[in-house]
Design a protein that fits this description.
The chain has 389 residues and is an alpha/beta fold. The protein folds into two domains: 178 residues, NAD(P)-binding Rossmann-like Domain (Rossmann fold, 3-Layer(aba) Sandwich), CATH 3.40.50; 177 residues, 2-Layer Sandwich (Dihydrodipicolinate Reductase, domain 2), CATH 3.30.360. Helix content is 42%, strand content 24%. Strands 12-11-7-10-9-8-17 form a seven-stranded mixed β-sheet. Strands 3-2-1-4-5-6 form a six-stranded parallel β-sheet, with helices on both faces. A two-stranded antiparallel sheet has the order 13-14. α3 packs across α12 and α8 crosses α10. The structure holds nicotinamide-adenine-dinucleotide (NAD). Nicotinamide-adenine-dinucleotide (NAD) binds next to α3 and α6.
């Protein structure tokens, strides 16, 4: 019955809309009608990406700009707990701002989607409010910082029909997608190990993030590298052993890990070593350091994620200017912008080649296990009930 209504609604539009409707009918149905009924909008109009941004900090303001410049999307509103951030958002974007996600969602029944860019530990509450209202979600990595939080978000979304994409932006980096394709050729070889260092200078926990103490280098950085390790290889982690160091940041009043190393055994017998530190000196040529190595039985890949091919020598020393995000003709473009533009496609047409809630849940479970291993000093089996079968 509902599917009949949806197809008939699109049949009134262009041939493309009919085709899109047929492709996406089963997948989108509940959410479309939920929002349709809530906002009292026509079904055709409801295929617009009308987006609210939750958290207007570094990432949220970038995403808000990307949405505002995307002709296929409409930036509806921004919310943030900080009045300073809201003042900045009101100056930059001609949209209403709110002090809470509840206020934003309540004031805008026309919203069809939201981007959650709050600190890691605050994803759950924001995402659950948005999912309760049936909004499609792009949630920054990690999906959540506990398995229970991730499951709560997913359960709410399943109930309302919201769909979730997780912001694992490195999947949009052409270096990694090129290597992923190469690994699938005959020359790629049989995977043996992936060894990855993704570190930040001490600037990040001490000056950039006000919430570093509620996170860790493992929560902030390893979701990127673990998702890549899984996505590049098509394997999944089954156990992890982690070691770490505390003291430098704690000595500065930020009570979290300085550095974490985690070794994962994967379900194909390969292993993955992830290193993430938050205490590199600020004299490093970029605010982060990203070195990725993949060894197979016939090949080795070295991928440099932080050196974008430009070295600048000047009064400030040696610098690696970054070009993952840049401006062209007055518009923002680059890797995370490609990701958010694909979120618009995900909302409108149901594009499925994006990181899902299952990908997000797996990474959250695995990074939670990293912290468990750090606390217990032992190997943690990720899914003992599954692997004992
Ligand atoms: N900064 C990066 O390089 C980077 C890169 C990739 C992903 N991320 C992820 O993006 C997310 C946001 O990180 P960020 O660097 O933009 O942090 P940020 O501190 O710059 O911004 C977070 C914003 O969320 C607001 N906020 C906190 N709780 C809120 C709530 N309940 N409702 C509404 N707003 C709330 C804060 O006031 C702040 O303005 C994190 O999950 C982070 O891991 C960050």
């Amino acid at each position: 019955m509902e599917s009949h209504i949806l197809v008939r609604g699109f049949a009134a539009g262009s041939a493309t809309h009919v085709f899109d409707a047929l492709l996406s009918v089963g997948f989108r149905l509940t959410r479309v009608l939920t929002n349709h009924e809530r906002a009292g909008l026509s079904v055709t109009a409801d295929r617009q990406a009308r987006v609210g941004v939750v958290g207007g900090g570094i990432r949220g303001s970038m995403f808000a700009r990307a949405i505002s410049e995307n002709p296929r999307a409409h930036l509806v509103a921004i919310c943030d707990q900080s009045s300073r951030v809201l003042q900045g958002a009101a100056t930059s974007f001609d949209v209403p701002t709110y002090g809470s996600v509840e206020a934003m969602v309540g004031a805008h029944p026309e919203l069809t989607a939201a981007i959650v860019a709050t600190p890691d530990f605050a994803h759950r509450d924001a995402a659950v409010v948005c999912a309760t209202h049936g909004l499609d979600l792009m949630i920054e990595k990690p999906l959540a910082t506990t398995t229970a939080d991730a499951e709560a978000i997913i359960a709410t979304a399943n109930k309302s029909g919201s769909r979730i994409m997780v912001g694992f932006e490195n999947r949009w980096n052409p270096r990694f997608s090129t290597v992923r394709n190469l690994l699938r050729t005959v020359d790629g070889g049989r995977l043996i190990t992936q060894q990855v260092s993704l570190n930040d200078t001490i600037f990040v926990p001490t000056k950039m993030l006000s919430w570093a103490e509620k996170s860790s280098p493992a929560w902030f950085l390893m979701p990127h590298t673990l998702d890549l390790a899984i996505w590049l290889s098509g394997t999944q982690p089954v156990s992890v052993y982690a070691r770490g160091h505390r003291g430098v940041l704690a000595g500065l009043g930020i009570n979290t890990w300085d550095s974490v190393s985690a070794t994962f055994t994967m379900n194909d017998g390969s292993y993955v070593v992830l290193n993430s530190s938050w205490i590199l000196p600020e004299t490093a040529p970029a605010v982060y350091d990203f070195r990725y190595e993949i060894q197979t039985d016939s090949t080795v890949f070295h991928i440099d994620g932080a050196n974008h091919g430009i070295t600048q020598y000047g009064a400030a020393g040696v610098r690696w200017p970054q070009c993952a995000v840049f401006e062209r003709s007055g518009r923002i473009t680059g890797i995370p912008i490609d990701m958010v533009n694909d979120f618009v496609g995900f909302v409108r047409e149901g594009d499925t080649d994006v990181p899902t809630h299952e990908d997000g849940l797996l990474v959250t479970q695995a990074i939670e296990a990293v912290h468990e291993s750090l606390a217990e000093g032992s190997i943690i089996e990720l899914f003992p009930h599954v692997h004992k079968k």
